[in-house]
Amino acid sequence: MTSQRSRTAGRPTLEQVAARAGVGRGTVSRVVNGSDQVSPHAREAVERAIAELGYVPNLAARALVTQRTDAVALVVSESEERVFGEPFFAGIVRGISSGLVNAQLQLWLAMAQSAAERERVEHHLTSQHVDGVMLLSLHDADPLPLLVEQRGLPLVLGGRPARLTRPGASAGWFVDVDNIGGAQRAVDHLHASGRRVVATIAGPQDMGAGLARLAGYREACRAHGLATDDGLVAYGDFSYEAGVAAMRQLLERRPDIDSVFVAADLMAAGALRTLREAGRRIPDDVAVVGFDDSGVARQTDPTLTTVRQPIEEMGREMARLLIARIAGEEPEESFTVLDTTVVVRESA
């Protein structure tokens, strides 16, 4: 037997769907574009005809009618190697994807670290291509937030920008974790276990997370009467290699350190390697606490005590806020800050 679909030449059209459903072309168009100005009976007939014919809407034509692309962008200001190699980014993408499922929005992912990548991204971030934008791993001098706002696109940031950590800065649309509180809890844990010379490997100081975690470390050290001099602070870019190098610096400057709070699990894994190479026992000689509670924390030797941030929940919240902005809604708060907790394992 030959099915109706196989007899239809080429791609099914709106008119063919209307004929099959026994309704007008306008009714089909309203169903396809999500209008509620259609009776339940007519909607059911149209949806049945669409399924039988295998009709796929012309997205370009639909966009002209709805002024929507049904796509959103996630732009990460990091290299492709880091985005696909580090657990944090994978968790964020999983969370965003799950948050967009019910909204039927397609996710467009791009990296924007090099000048060429940034130029391509800038050409794509228009209302003709996407309905909204999420930006992640922003550095202080990144021009993308201002560009997106100037183009009138709904925008949500992953992480509090560095400028918003300064006194008097106004809040924006963002999702973050309690970085200051998490760092304080890490130092509290080290102090409670008898550590008195607590060093830190801080993140980049042109990023909100890097600034906040260092501030939390310093506040907790002051509260416990611990030293926070420059010799106890080294810096890294959240990578494994940076953790290796920063731990070497700390051991050279202050061989008497008995603990270290590290602003990211990958850097903490690098620090553990350097400590082992230096003959330091962990945690007997030096205790180590990381930040993230990524899969890396369970794979290190010894396993890593760390501050847990709910990465996938952060991605889902980013998607929720962006959907609200696209719909023109005004939530009670334009930002979300998620709690952090210390997960105790062998390294501290």
From TrEMBL:
<keyword id="KW-0805">Transcription regulation</keyword>
<dbReference type="InterPro" id="IPR046335">
    <property type="entry name" value="LacI/GalR-like_sensor"/>
</dbReference>
<dbReference type="InterPro" id="IPR010982">
    <property type="entry name" value="Lambda_DNA-bd_dom_sf"/>
</dbReference>
<dbReference type="InterPro" id="IPR028082">
    <property type="entry name" value="Peripla_BP_I"/>
</dbReference>
<dbReference type="GO" id="GO:0000976">
    <property type="term" value="F:transcription cis-regulatory region binding"/>
</dbReference>
<protein>
    <submittedName>
        <fullName>LacI family DNA-binding transcriptional regulator</fullName>
    </submittedName>
</protein>
<dbReference type="GO" id="GO:0003700">
    <property type="term" value="F:DNA-binding transcription factor activity"/>
</dbReference>
<dbReference type="Pfam" id="PF13377">
    <property type="entry name" value="Peripla_BP_3"/>
</dbReference>
<keyword id="KW-0804">Transcription</keyword>
<keyword id="KW-0238">DNA-binding</keyword>
<feature type="domain" description="HTH lacI-type">
    <location>
        <begin position="12"/>
        <end position="66"/>
    </location>
</feature>
<dbReference type="InterPro" id="IPR000843">
    <property type="entry name" value="HTH_LacI"/>
</dbReference>
<dbReference type="Pfam" id="PF00356">
    <property type="entry name" value="LacI"/>
</dbReference>
